[in-house]
Amino acid sequence: MQNLRLLSRTANFGDSLLKHTRRVPSGSRQLGTAVSQTVPHLVAHDLSCSKTPSHVRDVRKHLDQKGLLKITLQFPDDKSKYLENLVTSLHEQHGHGLPIAHSSSRGWFWDVRPDRTTTCQPGYHQARSETMEDFPWHTDCSYEHAPPRFFALHVLQPDRLGGGTLSVMEVQTLVQTLPSAVKEALCQPNYQIAIPPEFIKQPDQQRIIGSLVALDPLDRRSTMVRFRGEIVTPLTERAAIALQTLKDTLRSPATSDTAIHLTADDLPAGSIILLNNHRWLHARNNIHDPSRHLRRVRWDAFQFPSGKKTHRRHGWGCTKSSTMPTGIFTLKQILEVTKVHPFYTSRVQYPPNEKILHAIRDEASPETGTPALPLQPLLHKKTLYREIARLLQDLSPENTYRRSSYLSSTGGGSGGLPMMFAVDGHENRRQRMQTGRLLQLTRVVDPADWVLSLHTSGKFYRSLDLITEIMENAGATLLSAGNYMSPAKVTEALAHYHVNVLTGDPSQIIQVVRHISSLTPAARSNIQLTKIIYTSESLTGPQIAFIRTVLGDVQICSVIGSAEAGPWAVGNPALTGRGSLTDTSMDFVFDTRNVIIEILPLTALDEGCPASALHPLPLGESGIIVQTSLQRLRNPLVRYITGDVGSLHPLPASASSIIPEAERAYLQVLRLTGRDRRFSFDWYGNYLEFDTMKSLMQADECGILHWQVVLGQPNSPVTTLEVRVLRAPPRVGILSDEQFTKRLHTFFDVSSENEALFKLVFLKDVDGFERSSTGRKIVNFIDRVH
Asked: Is 786's pLDDT higher than 70?
């Protein structure tokens, strides 16, 4: 504290900054030369540039690197259509947040021009930018919980009388001049920031509490500031001394010498200046020309981090929390995280750290309704996996993706090591608890159940421990058999321990049931299974019929999940009233407090699909399933295209006999009809992408002339996979049949468990292929299951 007092007394830097700035126009030509060397500059030749990917990419690059950009329009644009389109393109192509409303009464754009006609009107509050007075150093919307990261000014009419010079100053340069004690104090949430009357959006919220300085979550080597001196009130003596030191530093002529001053010569009519509002302060001297007219837009709002509830020193004074936040998260919080996460924002290198996540949870303003989820771009699997692959290989200490994570494998189908999806360890454990509660609530599992699990363990797969813990959380007693026990040993355990529930993948379950069917009637009578719970893929009608032929009228339930989302829904025909052998779909119940499901038209994934197709379909209509998890904050899953097809339905009235009334309002039914067969299929618990399979079959070293994959056989209780190939004659560079067989086994993940279900056929001519009935073409994929 003593150091702060001393700094405050000795920091006498003279007159205000704007006095120094007023001397700028006399040397404007020299400044213009300096500006051309300092401010990046792009030219837009016509309106189409605002949507051209290369031009938009250049804009994004300059905003990321410098945080400052000038654009010259070489066409008339009185309506600012270029700027409107550009901001929309930055949102669609690079994940920038959409523009914010300037107040309760104005939309995206605000006309910045002197207004002398309204100052005397009752109830009217004039913005500082609408006057002809100077406007000292500030950042826009410093009074918001989530200030916009960027703003742009379109010059429609410059000040022709030498006033209205725009000055900008890089925050990083300013902060480096401040003592560490001052910086640390500015990082603490000990400042009350009043909302100017003209910008009040909710009458009951006229001020906020927060910090003025923070580490930039998009670049942890940089600093971000929110500041407007006349509306900030310090709440402690230490905060007051730090604030005064900051103001004194801003008044220093030495500080002003580091600023860039943009006169009317530098920003003539048709110019646009874009700034990173977190990394640059800006100011304006007096306006002399009452006809000066700019148009402003602000976008990409982001929760300003705070030192609240932190205790450990990080960097030069901002703090870092010790534990990761856990629990159910609001959609508002999750959407805030997407703005600083590389899954959704290309300019972000690493996921947010603990401090940023805590700040988002602690400081997110209360939700006043459901956020506009349909405005969020869709998350494609290719985008997700590309970022995961990069993050898994990045060993930087700043890469939080590799920290304190539960890793789930995405499955086979590539022939190499599986992709690992990282989930915060605490979030994963809490999700297991919540899924167990859902199993108990929907009566899939009861406390009296003894469950034997056949799920896979090892080779990076975690199915066994996942299902075991979930069902224990539901109250059941578990036997972890795993996938290496023989059907005979499993059957012996079922009888010996009086197990009543068998759970596993469909293929594993069918193998055990087939063994039970081979027992004598006396031995079979010792098996008292009353319930089957399957995962990974669907049981087919013939498989269900076979199970009930052997075991009687057992209850058949299911749990659905993925590496990306974890377990999130359960199937119980007794609850939903569906489950006949003729059904080609399965109903799953999910809790809307844990996950949001949208159903989009199948055309939504087509190239060039209009934005109107991205809005959810009504209840009962079938389409692509898009998922948003409310259980993932650190690595969010928002509007993820699952690759499945289905429809949404209300919980049937008959469920009232099982589900308590207090819970029914939160439950909904997803009718899953299967995978989107345009892109992939599943076999033995693995999703296999057609594009990946095609690349394998067309690899030069495989020497394949024609190929065909056949999934399943008619009326078979098990799902087989047959691969037929016609290969070129042996030559140098072509794999031998033995080598090719090994590669195919690796690709399709063939093991001792499922090798009896896999068949590779080497054909000598094309007669062995099945052909289309019309063009007589060889069909690459035949599905006899669905």
From this structure: no
Domains with residue ranges and CATH for the chain: 41-118+125-301 (3.60.130.10), 331-421 (no CATH), 425-572 (3.40.50.12780), 683-783 (3.30.300)
Decide if 155 contacts 267 (C-beta within 8 A). Answer: yes
Distance, CA of 547 to CA of 545 (rounded, Å): 6
Q: Read out DSSP for 608-649?
A: T--GGGGSPPPTT--EEEEEEESS-SSS---SEEEEEEEEEE
- Would you report the helix, strand and coil content of the chain in percent, each value rounded to 5? 30, 25, 45
- Distance in angstroms (rounded) separating the CA atoms of residues 721 and 686: 12
pLDDT score for 557: 95
Place of tokens 């990282």: 422
- Checking if the pLDDT of 345 tops 60, the result is yes
**pLDDT at residue 16 in the model:** 32
Q: Which residues of 598-611 are buried (b: 16+ CB within 10 A; e: fewer)?
A: bbbbeebbeeeeee
CA of 417: how far to CAs of 61, 420, 699, 748, 760, in Å?
Answer: 34, 9, 19, 13, 23
Q: Coil, helix or strand for 227? A: coil
Helices (H), 50-200: 53-65, 81-94, 171-176, 180-186
Cα-Cα-Cα-Cα dihedral sign, residues 609, 615, 621, 623 = positive
The strand pair at 232-234 and 68-73 is best described as: unpaired
Instruction: Tell me the one-letter amino acid at 381.
Output: K
Residue found under tokens 């159940």: 449
User: Cα–Cα distances in Å, from 517 out to 514, 546, 718?
Assistant: 5, 10, 14
Our measurement of the distance from residue 604's CA atom to the centroid of its chain's CA atoms, rounded to an integer in Å, reads 19
Pairing of strands 166-170, 280-284: antiparallel
pLDDT digits (tens, 9 = 90+) for 515-534: 999 999 999 999 999 999 99
The arrangement of strands across the sheet holding 781-783 comes to 758-762, 721-727, 704-711, 781-783
Would you call 502 exposed, middle or buried from its count of C-beta atoms within 10 A (0-12, 13-18, 19+)? Answer: buried
Q: State the DSSP code for 770.
A: -
- Average pLDDT, stretch 129-150? 87
3-state SS, 440-485, equals: HHCCCCCCCCEEEECCCCECCECHHHHHHHHHHHCCCEEEECCCCC
| Position 303 confidence tier, pLDDT thresholds 50, 70, 90 | confident
C-alpha 480/C-alpha 461 separation (Å) is 14
For residue 669, give Cα distances in angstroms to 370, 589, 664: 20, 5, 11
Burial class (CB in 10 A: 0-12, 13-18, 19+), 715: exposed
Cα-Cα-Cα-Cα dihedral of 15, 19, 23, 25, to 10°?
160
**Under 8 Å between Cβ of 532 and 554:** yes
- Name 578's Cβ contacts closer than 8 Å, sequence gap at least 6: 585, 586, 587, 671
Q: Could you tell me the pTM of the whole model?
A: 0.56
Q: How far apart are CA 78 and CA 295, in angstroms?
A: 10
Polymer length of the chain: 786
Q: CB neighbours of 201 closer than 8 A, spacing ≥ 6?
A: 101, 103, 104
Q: Which residues pair with 420 in a beta bridge?
A: 409
SS3 of 781, please? strand
Can you tell me the mean pLDDT for 554-572?
93
Sign of CA dihedral 149, 329, 419, 760: negative
Sequence-separated (6 or more) residues with CB below 8 Å from residue 114:
130, 131, 132, 287, 290, 292
Sign of the CA dihedral running 742, 747, 753, 759: negative
| Residues ≥6 apart with Cβ < 8 Å to 642 | 562, 565, 624, 625, 626, 627
Q: How far apart are CA 437 and CA 665, in angstroms?
A: 16
Residue 250 tokens, joined: 């801003």
Q: How far apart are CA 273 and CA 263, in angstroms?
A: 12
